[in-house]
Amino acid sequence: MKKVVIILNIVVLLVIFSFYGYGIADQTNSGSGSDSSTTPSSGATTHIVEMTGNYEFVPSSLTIKQGDSVKWVVSGIKAHEVASGTVSEEGKGIPDGLWDSGKMASGSFAYTFNSTGTFPYYCNMHIDQGMIGAITVE
Ligand SMILES: [Cu+2]
């Protein structure tokens, strides 16, 4: 009879410790999540633009502050290539050489805007679908 009690005690302790362990894991997850959304101490902000499976930049136009960064994130299953420049009347991309992510099937590409002005860009793979955008830096 004593053996059964000892085994029950061990089981109860194991259950308590496993819950405790999950609690710690949850706290760690929520902690790193809040870290990624905070702005750096310099005051610069990173803005997210999604590149969707519907051949759109969301948002397609964005106003930011000088020194901020824009991070383009592939959010659908389609690959994209975000490049700075304008689109000719014939629908060809005219790169201005500031940035070009190359073809991205997933992940993200970031660029920091250190001067003011309006910066048009396009998806080099989906100009025909009208996949263009612009960043205004104040
Ligand atoms: Cu695209």
Word description of this protein:
The chain is an alpha+beta fold and 138 residues long. Helices cover 26% and strands 36% of the residues. The strands form two sheets. The protein has a five-stranded mixed beta sheet with strand order 3-9-8-5-6, with no helix packed on it. The chain has a four-stranded mixed beta sheet with strand order 2-1-4-7, with no helix packed on it. Strand 8 and strand 9 (132-137) form a beta hairpin. The longest helix is centred in the first third of the chain and has 36 residues, at 2-37. The termini are far apart. The structure holds copper (II) ion (CU). Residues 51, 55, 80, 123, 125-126, 131 line the site of copper (II) ion.
